[in-house]
Each structure stands twice: as C-alpha cells, then as structure tokens.
Amino acid sequence: MRAVVAAGTGGPEVLSVGEVDAPRAGAGEVVIEVVATAVNRADTLQRQGFYPPPPGATDTIGLECSGRIAELGDGVTGWSVGDEVCALLAGGGYAARVAVPVGQVMPVPGGVSLVEAACLPEVAATVWSNVFMTAHLQKGERFLVHGGAGGIGTMAIQLATARGAEVFTTAGSPEKLELCRSLGAAHAIDYHDEDFVEVLQDAGGADVILDNMGAKYLGRNVTALATAGRLVIIGMQGGAKGELDINALLRKRASVTATSLRARPVPEKAAICCGVVENVWPLVASGAIRPIVETTMPLEDVARAHQLMEDGSHSGKIVLTL
Ligand SMILES: NC(=O)c1ccc[n+]([C@@H]2O[C@H](COP(=O)([O-])OP(=O)(O)OC[C@H]3O[C@@H](n4cnc5c(N)ncnc54)[C@H](OP(=O)(O)O)[C@@H]3O)[C@@H](O)[C@H]2O)c1
C-alpha cells in the first residue's frame, strides 16, 4: 500500500511516499482505509529519531486519521465495513490503511467533513484527558493554555470556553493572538513582550495550566498557579530539565503532572476516546468547537507539511489527504 517512508532520520527531506505491506485487522482491531491524516509536533520528533514508536506499534508516522472501515477483526462489534470514522493512533496514520484497536475508533462528529475529522482525535483526546480527566477544570475556573494558536491550543481554548472556564492563553504574533480571541480566549498574552505570570497573578492565579514548554516555563508556571492549582505539562518545547520550587507548591497545595498520550495502554486510550465522544463531539456538532485547519495538502507533500510545522508560522492543524 501507499505510505510515507523515511530514508533514515533527519530533516523533512527524509520523508517521501513509497510502498509498504498493508496491515491486517488483529483481534479487537479494525483496519481503516485512510482518507486524511494530520501532522502533530510529535511526528517531527519521530522523524528526527527522538520519539520512537511504542513497542508493537508500526514505524510509519501518524497519530490520527479519518477514513472508512475496511476490515473488522475478530470480536469487533458495533461497527460495519464502510462506516466513516476517525481514530486516535499509536502510529501508522500516514498510510493508505491503518490497523487500530476498536476502542480508539470514533464516529465522525456532526457538522464536519471526513477530511476535517482527521485533525480532531489527537487534540481532542489530549485536551480532554489532561485538562478535564486529570486536572478537573471546572466551570468558572481560570485556565491558561500556552501556544493557544497551535493544534492543541486551538482545541483547548474552544473546549475550556465551551465548558465555562475563563481562558488565558499565550501566542507569538498579533494574528495568532487575534485567532485565540476569536476562539473564546478572554485574555490573549503576547509572550514576546508581556509577562503571563503578572497577568495571571493580577487575575488571582491560574486554577489549571496546560503547558507545552516544559523546563523553560516550569518556574513561572508554578508562580502563576492559584491556591490548589494544577499544572499539566504535555510538551518539552522549552527543554526537559528544570528546577521545581517545592516550597511554592507546598504553600499553594498545588500539583504538577506530566503525561504522554501515545504510550498509554489501549484500555486507557479507549476510556479517553469514550470521554471525547460523549463530551467533545456534541460541542463540535453544535458548532461551539470547530476544527482549525491551516492548510490541507496531498500526502505526497509530507516533507513540505513537516517543514511548515517546524517553521512555526501555522495556526491550528496541517492536514494530509490521500
Ligand atoms: N504529551 C502528550 O500526550 C501530547 C499530545 C499532543 C501534543 N503534545 C505536545 O503539545 C505541544 C503542542 O502540540 P501541537 O501539535 O499543537 O503543536 P503546534 O501546533 O506546533 O503548536 C506549538 C505551539 O507552541 C507555541 N510556542 C512556541 N514557543 C512558545 C513560547 N515561548 N511560549 C508559548 N508558546 C510557544 C507556538 O505558538 P506561536 O506560534 O504563537 O509561537 C505554537 O502554537 C507540543 O509540544 C506537543 O509535543 C503532547
């Protein structure tokens, strides 16, 4: 089948479309004929050799897709061949077909096209699991998400706003700040010349922070937390090793958590997907949350898509179609 192959590790130019063996559906799995997939920052790390697939996962890059069910494995119920779906993957989305545990298969939410649906599973599952299942963001609480104009950020702003939080976010250009406001952010902070700590402290502190920067923002995030605040770190764009002021955490009775979605056991991912379908998809269907797509390009342009993500000028998601 057609799939993205890598000529070793390195820059975007190592990626091209080639031929690999097609997967078959194992017990409890379905095979999806892929219509579209989307680029995630983790894909660029995998390409560079810094983020190998978990044991048992395919080497083919791609953490999400949309398409039609092509094959049902033993024991699979509730789906039929031909159903239009989207799915959270451990890998393999940049290909004509992918096998996925049935618990990670979701219906296409109402109101979005099959192509648009490809850019929802990873961001919806990441934001739902970290902000709501782990950090328990409540209506009326102050929520800070860094990188509000990115894939994760655009979903986090919309979902937190729809569930009644007061949303603060950071972004790096006037256009991106404006996008964040248009998605519901009450406070969009230019991280080049404003101090998010001051803004949050003036407002009473952040109850929940979703952080993509890691070490670079660790100390400032802890300072920006409110009493009983919850900091959830999902990225290391600003480094992996930082210093944690435990005294500040003690005084605030605050917590710091870090999670990775990809390596979680299949039953945990299935529970997250159930939560997404129950809580996020109705908001997509109602129009309260919309997919934010920077651009859609054919799979053959995968190297250009990775370059675009690494240049950092994009907002929302970059979609690849088959
Ligand atoms: N742990 C997990 O399970 C998990 C799952 C999914 C994603 N992630 C992580 O989540 C992060 C976002 O992923 P994504 O796919 O949404 O990538 P993305 O679309 O490329 O977004 C990255 C964002 O980082 C922002 N950024 C860069 N420098 C910043 C700074 N100094 N302060 C604040 N924001 C800054 C960028 O904002 P500007 O363009 O405005 O500069 C951009 O919006 C990545 O680190 C990714 O690895 C983790």
Please give a structural write-up.
There is one protein chain. This protein has 2 domains: 2-120 and 292-321, Quinone Oxidoreductase, Chain A, domain 1, CATH 3.90.180; 124-258, NAD(P)-binding Rossmann-like Domain (Rossmann fold, 3-Layer(aba) Sandwich). The chain contains 11 helices and 15 strands. The chain has helices spanning 41-48, 114-117, 121-134, 151-162, 174-182, 196-203, 215-224, 246-252, 266-279, 281-285, 302-311, and strands spanning 2-6, 15-19, 29-39, 64-72, 84-88, 97-101, 105-107, 142-145, 166-171, 187-190, 206-211, 225-233, 255-258, 293-298, 317-321. Helix 3 (121-134) packs across helix 4, helix 3 (121-134) crosses helix 9 and helix 6 packs parallel to helix 7. The mean pLDDT is 97. The structure holds NADP nicotinamide-adenine-dinucleotide phosphate (NAP).
